[in-house]
Amino acid sequence: MNEHDQWTLEQLKKLRNEHNQIVIDSAISLIQEQHDEIESLHGAMEGQLWSPKQWRS
Fold first, then answer.
1. In this structure, are residues 48 and 33 in contact, taking their beta carbons and an 8 Å threshold?
2. Packing angle of the helix pair 3-15, 21-49 (nearest 10 deg)
3. What confidence tens digit (pLDDT) does each residue in 31-56 have?
């Protein structure tokens, strides 16, 4: 995770209390899932860019 994402997660954790715990935990989970999805897409895109099959087309 980049520094911005890490900072965001840390700040959300600081805001968590008994009244908003479910919302904060859901937001943290969503940020982590989106980060994982973006990393996966980056890997797939790099694979397509560097694929010799793509160069022949």
1. no
2. 170
3. 999 999 998 888 777 776 666 665 55
Q: What is the pLDDT of residues 16-35, one digit of tens each?
A: 999 999 999 999 999 999 99
CB-based contact 26:42 (threshold 8 Å)? no
The CA distance from 32 to 52, in Å, is: 33
Q: What share of the chain is helix, strand, coil (3-state, %, to 5)?
A: 80, 0, 20
Q: Do 30 and 9 form a contact (C-beta atoms < 8 A)?
A: no
What is the distance of C-alpha 3 from the center of its chain?
A: 12
